[in-house]
Amino acid sequence: MDIQIDTPQQFPLDPEKIYYSMDELTLDTEEGPKTLRMGTWLNTDPVRIHKMIIREKTLQVDPSEVLAPLVSKLRRADPEYYKRFMGLNLVVDYPGYSTGIKASIPFENDPIGFYKWWRKGKHEDKVHLSLGNQIRLFQKVAMMDRKVMLKKDLDILR
Fold first, then answer.
1. Which of 47, 74, 90, 137 could form a disulfide with 86 if both were Cys (CB 3.0 to 4.6 A apart)?
2. b (16+ CB within 10 A) / e for 77-93
3. Parallel, antiparallel, or unpaired for β 18-19 and 60-61?
4. 124-134 pLDDT, tens digit each
């Protein structure tokens, strides 16, 4: 008599497929391959799923059904990763505005004010600026009013 052991069905990543929340996907984990619905993966490992979509570009998902909920889950699951990913698109409480605004608005429209708030106001932990954006900001501020800038930031421009 043969004994059959049921092995769970696997659903390997298909880079051509657009995944919806109910679609199943098998990914390697520390415990071995694991098959979950995409909606469950968003709760289980949101950073990994996000990296597969945005950085590696190996996973295509429906923007409204998967990507939108994923971004909100990232904020709770890994606030530091979320902040780095959002960069200047992050909504912040900025002086002079009654509600939160995208950091890009004062960054573009009021570079000196943004510099004072971000660097001198010790709000670097609130908005992640890539090195490129830091240099852009420092260049704008230096052209407008060098005296405002910290020596370490002026040194970066030399």
1. 90
2. beeebbbebbebebebe
3. parallel
4. 999 999 999 99
